[in-house]
Amino acid sequence: MSAKIIAVCNQKGGVGKTTTTVNLGVGLAAAGQRVLLIDADPQGSLSVSLGIGDADAQTDTLASVMVREMNREQYDVRSCIRHHAEGVDYLPANIELASVDVSMINTMSREYILSGVIAQIRDEYDFILIDCMPSLGMLTVNALAAADSILIPVETKFLPIKGLQQLFQTISSVRYRINPNLEIEGVLFTMFNGTNLSEQIAATVTETYGSSIRVFDTRIPTGTKAAEAPASGSSLLHYAPKSKAAAAYTALTNELLAHRNVKKEAAV
Known about the structure:
It contains twelve helices and eight strands. By secondary structure, it is of the alpha/beta class. The chain has a single domain, classed as 3-Layer(aba) Sandwich (Rossmann fold), CATH 3.40.50.300. The mean pLDDT is 91.
């Protein structure tokens, strides 16, 4: 059975996309799933979080295979995939991906370049998580074209919530023109601090969108350990397994797997 592909996406930066991708991925691996993480952000934050000290010095990256895919060259994406000690595979990225984002504009079927890369190895995994860049540019459109669903981390503050509508409009356009099967996996509240404002914003989002879009029960709390973990090259689940945020990501993993099993049973 081919992998479920989830794009972790929000055009707003600093909402926990990379942290969510890493820790959800490691959580899924710990639950016995075969997991590939794809760093689709030229900043290479996911790559650094998994222990690559100098992402920009790497040569075998997502950028290199996407260029080969655009040029219709023979290549094996497996040569660029790394394995992390916590049980996940990952495809790193660096600043070269920014030039790929620009060059895709003049490429035939430019929305499907990443899909072509993933097609080589989709059957080798249960889950493929794509860490998207904080924009709605061509790289993000590629991720949404390749994905089965989109997971949206949202910080419970006014401005991040305000940007949700723009993201939903982009998703609607992608469904209409590129990927009609794209689903919303759910909205995930991150950096949740339990204040009245956080509770009020969470309640408003749930009331506004909850009838048509899944809102995860799990909320990821704020915490210094989550900020420290990337420097260690490991997930929060390994760096601070007893932290509240680590427990929350374990709960998110279980919630996602339970929802997937329910959908499987409904499809039988």
